[in-house]
Each structure stands twice: as C-alpha cells, then as structure tokens.
C-alpha cells in the first residue's frame, strides 16, 4: 500500500478527475497562505469553490470527511479570504469537502459534500 503522503497525493488526483468530470474548472492546486493550504480552488458557473480533500486507507477513526475539524475549517476560511482579497473577488463562493476511502490503488469510495461548512463572514 501507499504511505500517508502518497495516499493524499493520489486522493487529490482522484478529486481533480471527479471535479472536472462534473464540469468544474480547476484554477489552483495546493494554494498556501500562512499555515493553511487549500487543496483545490475551482469554479463552477458563477461560484468559486474551495475544496478540502481528505483521503484515508481505513475508517477506524471515522470517514475521511469527518477529519475536517473546526480548526481546519477556520484555517481554510482564513486562506480563502486572503485568496479572494488578492484576486479582488467578491461574489459567490463555498467550501466543499471530498472524502476518499482508498481500499487499494484501484478501489475507492468518493463522497463529495458541496457547501460542507459555512463561512461566518
């Protein structure tokens, strides 16, 4: 099987494939601000979407998407705010989570949670 980094990298590739097959335009990958990293920034129609990808090889401690903690959500919101300020973007946006369960390199389960959490600003 893969190590943790390889599982994460593979999960992000799977997430990009999923998003593009759903008609999303990928704008950025692994965009960093301070201590936060936004895995995927994409656009669908008139909405900017910030995507957190969580990939696991097992569910002993819950589903992959359940590992997005309130602290992680706050870091993502801060980074998204900075991204939008830098681009002077002030329209629709949302935060999605894509959870991927890797059984092996070919078998996996994908859950895409649109509008997974709400920004308070």
How would you describe what is shown here?
A hairpin with a 2-residue loop joins strand 2 (36-44) and strand 3. It is built from two helices and five strands. The model has no long low-confidence stretch (mean pLDDT 88). It is an alpha+beta fold.
Instruction: List how many beta strands DSSP finds.
Output: 5
- Give me the side-by-side strand order of the main sheet: 1-2-3-4-5
Based on Cα principal axes, name the global outline. Answer: globular
Output the structural class: alpha+beta
Poorly predicted sequence stretches spanning 5 or more consecutive residues: none
Percent range of helical residues: 25-40%
Strand content: 35-45%
Sheet with the most strands? 5 strands, mixed
- The overall average pLDDT, rounded, is 88
List SSEs in N-to-C order.
Answer: HEEEHEE
Q: Number of helix segments? A: 2
Whole-number radius of gyration? Answer: 14 Å
Distance between the ends: 41 Å
Write the layout of secondary structure elements.
Elements: H1 4-21, E1 25-33, E2 36-44, E3 47-56, H2 70-87, E4 93-102, E5 108-117
Parallel strand pairs: 3-4
Antiparallel strand pairs: 1-2, 2-3, 4-5
Based on the model shown, name its key terms.
single chain; alpha+beta; 2 helices; 121 residues; 5-stranded mixed beta sheet
